[in-house]
Amino acid sequence: MMLLASTSLGAAGQFLFKLSVLGDGITYLILAAGVLAYFFSTIVYFYVLSRAHLSWTYGIGGLSYIFTVVLANFIETVPFMRWVGVVIITIGVLLIGKS
Predict the structure, then answer these.
(1) What is the DSSP letter of 51?
(2) What pLDDT, on the 0 to 100 scale, is given for residue 15?
(3) Cα 25 from Cα 46, distance rounded (Å)
(4) Phi then psi for 70, rounded to 5 degrees?
(5) Contact 60, 5 (CB under 8 A)
(6) I need a surface site. Which of 10, 38, 70, 81 has the fewest CB within 10 A?
(7) Angle between helices 63-72 and 2-20 (to 10 degrees)
(8) Is 3 exposed, middle or buried (0-12, 13-18, 19+ CB in 10 A)?
């Protein structure tokens, strides 16, 4: 559950980074929210690393790619082949999660 929180926060941070630079300039409040999300993602990830195997933890971390593409879909067009990649990553994460 904590790893899910870490990957979700990391994806949210990336999404907020992108939102902060849309338009004419940088929106510093959104950028700060992104940095904060990334910071908490890292703190939670350290906690997970202290309690789980690195090979499992890093593999499940692939969820961040999935979450980020889903969020990106709200502000940009995600090409079909990228969705195919997300499906392949999802299968890989499921296989790692079962091990």
Answers:
(1) T
(2) 96
(3) 33
(4) -60, -45
(5) no
(6) 81
(7) 40
(8) buried
In the block, tokens 């593409």 appear at 69
Predicted model pTM: 0.86
Mean pLDDT, the chain cut into blocks of 10 residues (99 residues total): 93 95 88 96 95 90 93 95 96 90
Amino acid occupying residue 7: T
Token pair recorded at residue 30: 């959104």
CB-based contact 65:86 (threshold 8 Å): yes
- Give the SS3 label for residue 21: coil
Residue type, 19: L
CA distance 68 to 93: 15
